[in-house]
Amino acid sequence: MQTRALIFATLTLLLAACDTKTETSTTKTETQTTPAADPATPATPAAAGTADSGAKADASTLVIQQSADIPTLDPGTTYDTSSGQIVENLYEPLVGYKGSSISDLQGVLATEWKEEDGGLKYRFTLRPNVKFHTGNPMTCADAEYTFERNLVTNTGDSGNWFISESLLGTPKNAVDDPSITWERIDQAVECDGETLVFTLPKVDPAFVSKLAYTGQSIVDSKHAKEIGEWDGTEKTWKEHVGKELNGSPLAQKPSGTGPYMLVSRDNANVTTKAFGDYWGGKPKIENVVLKIVPEEASRLQALLRGDADFVETGGRPMIDEQLRGKEGIAILDNLPDTYVFGISMNQKIADGADLGSGKLDGQGIPADFFSDVDVRRGFASAFNVQDYIDQVQQGKGTPRNFQLPDTFPGYDKSIPAQPFDMEAATAAFKKAWGGKLWDTGFTINASYRQGSVPAQTAMEMLKANIESINPKFKINIQPKQWSEILASAKDGKEILTTTSWAPDYADPDNFVYTFYHKDGYYKSRTALDDAEINGWIEEARTTTDPAKRQAAYSKVAKKALDQAYFILMPTNPGIRAYRSSVQGVSEGSYNPMYAFGLGTLWKDLSKQ
Asked: In the prediction, which pLDDT does 20 show?
């Protein structure tokens, strides 16, 4: 079920210099115009500052421009940054992030929570006097319905796989795992009066962090049932198992508890207004308008003119060349990196992949080519990380030692980073395949996402260095559409390709399990199955002791580095440009877990 996180590479706002969120299989759907979520208090187009009325970035309106469309507004299937930046302002989860920290959580719709039974039970006290946009009061029944709906509908196009893993012990839904019954779902989340109670089948140290994910936001169950969503009963639950929700009734008519409510939505614009009955007080900015503007030049000009407050810029090169130092433009630089980018080497390439001759004869490679550790070490040692930093990231960033952001718990900075060493690469290649590889050479096909300049540059640098070692070494680089890479990778046919991941939730498990476990998302691209590493990961997944988890992750990092399981890309500090009239933006308040590019919620912003 872990088809997400490669989510953001196609739907992301592309706010960093390289591809920002993970890969995705989420299908973009054409959006339709929708009415206000609260029919009793609709906003007029003029008041809301809709794009049709020529919304300007005045003091009452925040205008955002981006190229990506909005696949859905249903929290139950929100799994991309483009949708997420809106949903995280219309809806709210039980817990959220405290300031700029990704590890300190605070109550949002819950005021407090308590762990019981050694981590097998959690009790959440819900915030009183909270209203949905319809005017309905939020109760424990809404929270119970939300999580049961997420467990029932759980598909690979949503983030519900990881909440299902916590509450049911499996990332799958009832179609893919027949052992899931209504009784298991019903007992996993219950109300004890107005206290929400979760019962877990096993300890999950990341459980509370998972609840901060936008997709676990609480929905208005009364409203949902009235507009045709699942009725919440055992009688009908099977009809909704794995149901596609991108265009669901709730996606068309959302009703959350968030500080903003939907006014209208069409293929080009999404317009929201401040919710007057928001429990946290009405936001200072009255209207937020998001415009879909495909042309980069148009977006940049809108920002420079002041017609937009925040736009998709194309990353560091474009910001430095066209926006830095310009009147009315503010820059937020050197932001924490929560994104991981690397190159995978498949140790067991599936039938049907383009292996050339399929032999170790210089005209191709055998399917188990990368199962030889010296082949992997040769490739890893031949990648010049510092050159990549200088060429692609304009000198920003540092080498990594692990496929985990160095801003996350679990990253051990005492471990030396993967080194660039052409002599070591040469020595490894001379040892590979019992010394035969050096004499025969190889021809290998590598791929990257078409249009991704960082990925293309990385592959070209790797090719140049490896081919310079031995004239018999050949790498053919092939740009592919993202959908083609996803399909091929899923079938185990990708040989040497780029990998990327950004967090679903702020816990190292979301990266370490994904990349290094035998059942992780990337197993089809690496065929990695290291018994010691599997054991250390499972150890870290079943204890809440931070020291024990850190020790386990350090062991994984050291062995993975020694075995060269990935070619590691450097950290990439983020950069954002915005209108200086926007207040509430700073490095101290920036939290990379928010989908909105300025690392904050709209409610915390104001304008001069």
From this structure: 33
Can you give the CATH number for the domain in which 399 is found?
Answer: 3.10.105.10
Same domain, 72 and 131: no
Task: Report the domain count for the chain.
Answer: 3
What pLDDT, on a 0 to 100 scale, did the predictor assign at position 57? 72
Same domain, yes or no: 190 and 281 = no
**What pLDDT score does 502 carry?**
86
Instruction: Tell me the whole-structure pTM to 2 decimals.
Output: 0.84
Structural domain including 167 reads: 95-237
Contact present, 592 and 600 (Cβ < 8 Å)? no
Contact 203, 120 (CB under 8 A): yes
* Cα-trace Rg, the chain: 24
Residues of the chain whose pLDDT is less than 50? 1-53
Counting beta carbons within 10 angstroms of the beta carbon of residue 271, is it exposed (0 to 12), middle (13 to 18) or buried (19 or more)? Answer: buried
Structure tokens at 98: 């405290």
Which of 184, 215, 237 is at the close of a domain? 237
User: Could you tell me the end-to-end alpha-carbon distance of the chain, in angstroms, rounded to an integer?
Assistant: 45
Q: Which run of H or E residues covers position 104?
A: none
447 and 405, same domain (yes or no): yes
Burial class (CB in 10 A: 0-12, 13-18, 19+), 423: exposed
Contact 146, 218 (CB under 8 A): yes
Q: Tell me, what's the pLDDT at 18?
A: 35
| pLDDT at site 80 | 87
